[in-house]
Amino acid sequence: MSDPALEEKIAALEKKVADLESRVPEDRVTLVVFSGELDRVLAAFVIATGAAAMGQQVSMFFTFWGINSVRRRTLYSGKRLTEKMMAFMAPGSSRKLPVSQMNYFGIGAKMLRGMMKNNNVASLEDLMALGKELGIRMIACTMSRDVMGIRDAELFEGMDAGGVGAFLGDALRSRVTLFI
Amino acid sequence: MDAPKADATLDARGMACPMPILKARQELGKLTPGQILKVVATDRGSIKDFQGWASTSKQLALVSQVTEQENGKDIYVHFLEKKA
Lengths: 180, 84
What we know:
Shape of chain A: elongated
Number of strands of chain A: 5
Oligomer: heterodimer
CATH superfamily of chain A: DsrEFH-like
Number of domains of chain A: 1
Structural class of chain A: alpha/beta
Number of domains of chain B: 1
Number of helices of chain A: 7
Low-confidence stretches of chain B: none
CATH class of chain A: Alpha Beta
Low-confidence stretches of chain A: none
């Protein structure tokens, strides 16, 4: 038995379902880490590792001050004067990040780390290592890296490079997107 | 209600958010579907945390949660069934 009108209707419906399926969010969480302060970056990594543990595919985009949290060292050679000044003034690693309030030249950040340790809270570096284990994808924004003159060798190993297209490519398929 | 029989136990006492969930995830990875993981935690946020995870996840189901006393302090015991 075949009814051409019915078959046509089914084909149209199938096309519609396939179209809708491509618009349903995936089990995916995308974060922009714009801030370069210990407390804010910590919040980003708590959410990111929690989401990854809960079965979400997590992407973290590091841009502007957020790049300082994924640095492993500071290089000066081959940089322009302004880039050298930037490198000198910026925190050279996650361990040197200030806090967003009551920093007092780094005393506040040291105190917060001590208080977290006393309360058995994982350190930022612990969470970063766990994030790597859990398969979190980390992308450094090429535009802000170029502006500040940050080289590949200054960043964590295994970081991807990308821009707004890479971010939106992930964010548009995500259930949750945060800008921290 | 009798406590479910656990196939593995995670001692998450003293751990703060997000570690109970991260460690539970690692332990669940070692189990096969249908097995039960018992998580013992002192973080009072862990009750809502495991509820939140279970409510959105195809990986696990929350079998039961009980609050017990240990040395005069509350401890939170969660039984998670691995689904997939």
